[in-house]
Design a protein that fits this description.
Strand content: under 5%
Low-confidence stretches: 4-23
Oligomer: single chain
Number of helices: 2
Helix content: over 70%
Structural class: mainly alpha
Number of strands: 0
Length: 126
């Protein structure tokens, strides 16, 4: 009886050890997969940041062009049309910039969340 209890206890321990090792292997695989996604996401964020910065400079230039054209709006109908045209271009560029900036912020939030998840589950000693 004691022998069978000891044997079953050893079998339970062996099974738990095997499960723990399998979980560890799965955890390592998951952590490696998570780590592999970090560099491409960071590169994408940097690319979008550069695009957003270029767009911001373009929006600034279009805003200045609109202000310059707006000054002459009352001179003639052609000047008013030019002011309307530059204003439309400025507003379209602003809208596109805002969309890009929102996409960048969403991607950065997701990247930060991924880093936190990775640090909590992969970078800490258990």
């Amino acid at each position: 009886m004691i022998k069978s209890i000891a044997t079953s206890f050893l079998l339970v321990l062996a099974a738990q050890t095997a499960v723990a090792e399998a979980m560890t292997a799965a955890d390592v695989k998951r952590c490696n997969a998570m780590a592999a996604t970090m560099a491409p996401k960071k590169a994408e964020i940097e690319t979008i940041q550069m695009k957003r910065d270029d767009m911001a400079a373009d929006v600034e230039l279009k805003g200045e062009a609109w202000e310059d054209a707006e000054i002459h709006r009352l001179v003639s109908a052609a000047h008013a049309a030019k002011a309307d045209e530059t204003k439309a271009a400025y507003q379209a560029a602003k809208k596109e910039l805002m969309g890009t900036d929102q996409a960048l912020q969403a991607l950065a939030r997701q990247f930060n969340h991924d880093i936190i998840s990775y640090n909590q589950s992969c970078a800490t000693a258990k």
